Amino acid sequence: xxxxxxxxxxxxxxxxxxxxxxxxxxxxxxxxxxxxxxxxxxxxxxxxxxxxxxxxxxxxxxxxxxxxxxxxxxxxxxxxxxxxxxxxxxxxxxxxxxxxxxxxxxxxxxxxxxxxxxxxxxxxxxxxxxxxxxxxxxxxxxxxxxxxxxxxxxxxxx
Length: 158
Description:
By secondary structure, the protein is mainly α. Helices cover 72% and strands 0% of the residues. The mean pLDDT is 86.
């Protein structure tokens, strides 16, 4: 919250930073979120002339950290299954968590780990991405609205 409250940018730029950071935070791109915000920032500035607060964008990606990744990904999975009309194929959280357990093993070499990640992405990746899209859009929208309202109110008080 400190980068948000200390932001010197216009409320619109800060709100766009929150929107971009939250949108990337709610995608299945763990470990790539901060570089993706940076890439978005570079493309937005150079190609579209669109400014946003990079620090806020990066900071908001931390909302979905390593501690909450599996539950958030499970939410994406269930949402994707529902969007595909697969009401009969909604496995429980324990079954979903078991899928990720091999990735947490420390005795795997890098080739085995990459093979397991690819298997996971090919089996569940499309469903995860499909289920993540409404969450990313929704969180980006609410992040923009909240930040914009907060900063405009705060500046009006000053």
